From TrEMBL:
Family membership noted in the UniProt record: Belongs to the calycin superfamily. Fatty-acid binding protein (FABP) family.
Domain (Lipocalin/cytosolic fatty-acid binding): residue spans on this chain: 5-121, 147-227
InterPro entries according to UniProt: Calycin, Fatty_acid-bd, ILBP, Lipocln_cytosolic_FA-bd_dom
Gene Ontology molecular function terms on file: lipid binding
Xref: Gene3D superfamilies: 2.40.128.20
Protein name: Lipocalin/cytosolic fatty-acid binding domain-containing protein
Keyword NADP: no
SUPFAM superfamilies in alphabetical order: Lipocalins (SSF50814)
Keywords, in A-Z order: Lipid-binding
Length: 227
């Protein structure tokens, strides 16, 4: 297992406010946390870890053993159940509160990358964690076929523009989806748990496809190169 011990200084973060809102944090808490710069110290002793976050407004320290559930206080003051596991150069943390949060800390050289996902199930996170995808789009008359291939699964969807259809979501549930075209964009709306997920596939050049997915206040962006 990778040695994660060290001192880490925050250099950048993206989509932090959206994540906090998805977790239900108040605007006051968001403003307070958003103005902070944070340093992280990780101390590792076998399977026991101590994570210490230091910012101008507060210091938080938590000690845990891999695979053992523990109580933790989030930055907004709420108490949640957490469990952390290790996967080579990654520490994977699941927090269970009003909304589930998954935090992946990945050590690449001297850089620690931290990604947090709120509102997704364990199954989806395990499937999508660090996968690379291949996307194939074909059109035969009015019928489109979207095929996504990854190491863990392959999905294939056929549809006609403007016609709603049933689609299997990544967690196995069946959802309602409809697609529309707008210039160089293919726009998808899917109804999930009384919320709407919007996926916009946009060809910015002849060889590059940008995919932007929005669900609640969380936005994910992916880029594909045409082969």
């Amino acid at each position: 297992m990778t040695d994660f011990s060290g001192n880490y200084k925050l250099t950048s973060f993206d989509n932090w406010e959206a994540l906090l809102r998805e977790l239900g944090a108040s605007e006051e808490v968001i403003a307070k946390l958003n103005s902070n710069t944070s340093d992280l110290t990780i101390t590792q002793n076998g399977t026991t870890f101590t994570l210490k976050n230091v910012s101008p407004n507060h210091t938080r320290e938590v000690t845990f053993e891999l695979g053992k559930e523990f109580d933790e206080t989030r930055a907004d003051g709420s108490v949640v159940k957490s469990v952390v596991t290790a996967d080579d150069n990654k520490l994977i943390q699941i927090q269970k509160g009003d909304k589930e949060l998954t935090i992946i800390r990945e050590l690449v050289g001297n850089e620690l990358k931290v990604s947090a996902t709120a509102g997704a199930s364990d199954k989806i996170i395990n499937q999508m964690g660090s996968l690379t995808y291949e996307l194939n789009i074909t059109k035969a008359g009015p019928v489109y076929t979207l095929k996504q291939v990854s190491p863990n699964f392959t999905t294939e969807t056929k549809f006609e523009l403007g016609k709603e259809f049933d689609e299997q979501h990544l967690d196995g549930s069946t959802v309602k989806t409809v697609h529309f075209a707008d210039g160089n964009k293919l726009i998808q709306t899917t109804k999930i748990n009384n919320k709407v997920m919007k996926v916009v596939r946009e060809f910015s050049t002849s060889s590059e496809l940008h995919v932007t997915a929005t669900y609640g206040s969380v936005v994910s962006i992916a880029t594909y190169k045409r082969e």
